[in-house]
Amino acid sequence: MSFSALGLFPALLNPIEAAGYTQPTPIQQQVIPAVLAGRDVLGIAKTGSGKTASYVLPILHQLQQVGAFKYREPTVLVLVPTRELADQVQRVFNEFLPALSERQTCLAIYGGVSINPQMQEIGKANILVATPGRLLELIEKNAVKLSSIRILVLDEADKMLNLGFKAEVDQLLARLPAQRQNLLFSATLSADLSLIQQLILRNPQVIEVAEDAGDIDLIHQLAYLVSEEKKGPLLRYLIQQGNYQQVLVFASSTLKTDAIVNKLVKNRIHAASIHSKLSQQTRRDVLQQFKSGQLRVLVTTDLLARGVDIEFLPCVINYELPRSPKDYVHRIGRTGRADSPGDAISLVSPEEAAHFQLIQKKMGKRVKTLSGDVIV
Ligand code: ADP
Ligand code: MG
Fold it and tell me: Domain count of the chain?
């Protein structure tokens, strides 16, 4: 299938081609027509499957149809859980916005940076990509109204609807017009579907692209049973032994990410973490350095890892296991491709051993497990 068969306005095909998209991904093939038809959509597909363009492109089509002149307030609202994701989604909109015959703009809104420039700009933007807290702040300051929003997107919807964000998202939903199109995207859906439908979606088209069972075989999975205090030395050993130049390490908390980074840096391994206590500029720089290959090890939690688009990685290491077996599959999915299989290594403490059994059972695959304590 080609993009031209999807019914998007012809001028959009130029930036699509310039972006190097030769054909729509499976989720795009299904979501784009549903959004164009005005349906509410719940789209579920793994990280990296192209969910962003699956909503950006048909939304731009709709903006092209209506024209910006009719509204003096934003008409599209995309809610995201992290600042990095806000920047990333805005970049995708900006890539395709020039195709519109009338100039329309997309603004990313998030905390951790000065609010004043956002106060100036927000009312004029056509599309807002926002984290909930800062957007609420701007609404309270009367910098923007959401009464013209026609399309609402919740990206990483299960994060947006879970406890940490729920109250803020509810406050925002209460300010939106009832008559609107709702688009929800997620890599996993842990929340109760019927609840989501009640809250947000009207008779949605649920589009789920199943994981390709073969994908997981492209990943060399390995686990080390290791005591908690030996995880640090084992991590360093594995990075150096494997001579990995780009490693994504997952930990359970921001405190833990800092502790891991400190140990790596003391041992002269170039490493950094990204978390909420760092300045936005630092977070941006660290992600950029990691993506460009200047930073060898990025230590992070699931929150940042989800949704953030990082090119193929040679190695992913679970310093600690995720609680959900699905998150395990998403984490290791950051590596492994047809042309270059990647390594996914888990450090499993005795306390985590039973949980690791469960993960393997859910995944339907046994992972070779070695003893880590004898190595370091
Ligand atoms: P997701 O939100 O599902 O995790 P993204 O939207 O971040 O995935 O897209 C992942 C990567 O795939 C991005 O680098 C994006 O540019 C690229 N991409 C998206 N659609 C296509 C396509 N049709 N063809 C090729 N690459 C694409
Ligand atoms: Mg995404």
Answer: 2
> pLDDT by residue (tens digit) across 268-291?
999 999 887 788 888 889 999 998
User: Is residue 24 in contact with ligand 1, taking CB distance under 6 Å?
Assistant: yes
- The three-state secondary structure class of 74 is coil
- Strand (E) or helix (H) holding 167: helix 163-174
**What is the Å distance from ligand 1's center to 332 Cα?**
18
Q: Is residue 112 part of a domain?
A: yes
- Average pLDDT along the chain: 91
CB of 49 sitting under 6 A from ligand 1 = yes
273: Cβ contacts below 8 Å, ≥ 6 apart: 254, 257, 258, 260, 261, 286, 298, 299, 300
- Give residue-wise pLDDT tens across range 100-148: 999 999 999 999 999 999 999 998 899 999 999 999 999 999 999 999 9
Residue at a domain's end among 157, 178, 208: 208
pLDDT below 70 — which residues of the chain? 68-71, 190-195, 197-199, 212-214, 304-305, 337-339
Name the domain boundary from 155, 184, 208: 208
Q: Say yes or no: 91 and 118 in one domain.
A: yes
Q: The domain that contains 56 carries what CATH number?
A: 3.40.50.300
Which of 21, 44, 56 has most ligand 1 atoms within 8 Å of its beta carbon, as the pocket-test mutant? 21
Question: Under 8 Å CB-to-CB from 199, ≥6 apart: which residues?
Answer: 161, 173
Q: Which of 25, 129, 302, 311 best tests ligand 1's pocket when mutated (most atoms within 8 Å of CB)? A: 25
CA of 125 to the centre of ligand 1 (A): 25
Domain shared by 217 and 355, yes or no: yes
Q: Clarify whether residues 152 and 229 are in a common domain.
A: no
